[in-house]
Amino acid sequence: MDKSVKKSIFHHQTFQGWVVLFLIFLASCKAMEPPHMPTIKPVPEVFLMESDTSGLADISWREFFNDPFLVNLIETGLQNNLDLLAALERIEIARANYKVRKGVIYPNLDAIVRYRSGDIRPNLFNGTVNGDRNVINRIENNFVGFQSTWEIDIWGKMGDRRDAAFNQLLATEKGQQLIVTNLVAEIAGIYYDLLGFDIELETIEKNIEFQEMALELIKIQKMVGRATELAVQQFSAQLLNTRSMEFEKRQDIIEAENYLNYLLGRYPQPIERAPSLMQIRLPYIAEVGLPSEMLLRRPDIQMAEYELRAAAFNVEAARKEFLPSFSLTPYIGLNDRSIPAAFQFPGAISVGLLGGITAPIFAQNQIRAGYQEAIASNRIAIYQYQESILTGYREVMDKLQRIQNLRDVYALRNEETAVLLNAVTTANELFRGGYASYLEVITAQSRVLEAELGMTDTRRQMFFTVVDLYRALGGGWE
Question: Is the pLDDT of residue 239 over 70?
Fold first, then answer.
């Protein structure tokens, strides 16, 4: 070949190489500037309360709940709840994904057995042989050995993917802890609800007895001319209304038991429980001042934090997709044109090393779309993390104030009930003596029933609120 032609070809290939390098450089510049992300608002150092629970979330749920029946139910739920069992499987999925991402940064090794009978091509240069047949080139290449492929993570892209998968695994584990926290709180809430229904049913049954006695009394007074049929009808209507409340409350008990059994992962059956809600001590709350860092114990906040970290690593990995990739492919084995010759030592031994560099020149739109998607996902994770902190702070503030207010409400309702019970006794005595009307007796009985039911509901709400505060501070998952 003429020297000038060779020189022209050389310059042409050199020019192509510089063009390729320039395109690689332009693609690499896409990954130089990190994206702008919104900032996270700082959390107040302390809750805006004078007194609070400092170590409440550090207490194990077995110590926090002082009712052995409830402790037994929670243990059953933690073993059999279907949502919790599904969460454990999601952890296994995340762990498997992390193992896959972790293994990508290491070279893989494949055993290769390749037999090729050859590519059969007519020889267009030599024409025919033996008069009527094309000359055939039969190329045989047989290889038995090992080949490794290793993409060198020079930019840390695969390491970012691995770290993202690891943080996603941690987030999944925190998600399982969140389910445990919510499950413990929900079982306790339904249990206290059930005990409250028991007291309300006893209160209704007690008032039915009082109203039946009042109805008999008004019937006797009608017989002697001291009461009218209207009074009898009023007392009868009141008794019928209270009896209907009894059946409604029994239905509430059945539904609460069924739902509690559902949380425990079992079919409906009787629930063993304490004799009375009034006999259970309210979980203790120490009033020692609470730093806002206690919110960081919440599994949902920790889960959002790990998801935020995973999203940030995904952004870095997507940004580095613009950069070129480097790979090495070493191989060793037996290689020859025929199978018998391939096993002749040492002449058939073949050792080699291939290297390559690839740059995403014609896939810019696809990579840019993935990069923008990763940025948007990271921003969403930031907003969700901020939202989880605000939600936790609001919940704790609400529960703290509610506990104090419910204590005051319960004290007043207790006093109100005592006064109304005396009023019922007084109304009955005055009615027997003819100094009070039947409407006053009916009103007194109705109000005492409402007051007793309200007092029971307030005490139940106190238990609910303490349990919610325990959950809001991230307790119950240990």
Answer: yes
Closest CA to 78 of 185, 173, 193: 185
Which range in 21-35, 347-361, 461-475 is most confidently predicted, on average pLDDT?
A: 461-475
Q: For 407, list phi and psi in degrees, rounded to 5.
A: -60, -45
0.85 surpassed by pTM: no
Burial class of residue 130 (count of CB atoms within 10 Å of its CB; 0-12, 13-18, 19+): exposed
Q: Name the band, by pLDDT with cuts 50, 70 and 90, for residue 248.
A: very high
| Distance separating alpha carbons of residues 157 and 178, to the nearest angstrom | 31
DSSP assignments along 353-371, one per residue: EEEEEE--SS-HHHHHHHH
Question: Mapping DSSP to helix (H, G, I), strand (E, B) and coil, where does residue 133 land?
Answer: strand
Strand pairing category for 325-336 and 142-152? antiparallel
| Residues whose CB is less than 8 angstroms from the CB of residue 106 and which lie 6 or more positions away in sequence, other chains included | 150
Can you tell me the mean pLDDT for 240-258? 96
CA dist 438 and 95 (Å) reads 73
Domain locations along the chain? 1-30, 38-105+157-323+373-472, 109-152+325-358
Domain spanning 109-152+325-358: CATH 2.20.200: yes
Q: Which of 141-150, 161-170, 280-289 has the highest mean pLDDT?
A: 161-170
Q: Could you tell me where the beta strands, DSSP code E, fall in 59-191?
A: 108-114, 120-122, 128-129, 133-134, 136-138, 142-152
> Shortest CA distance to 195 belongs to which of 129, 252, 135, 133?
252
**Half-sphere exposure of residue 344: CA atoms within 13 angstroms, side-chain side:** 9
Q: Is 276 helix (H, G, I), strand (E, B) or coil?
A: coil
CA dist 144 and 299 (Å) reads 53
* Overall fold of domain 38-105+157-323+373-472: Outer membrane efflux proteins (OEP) (1.20.1600)
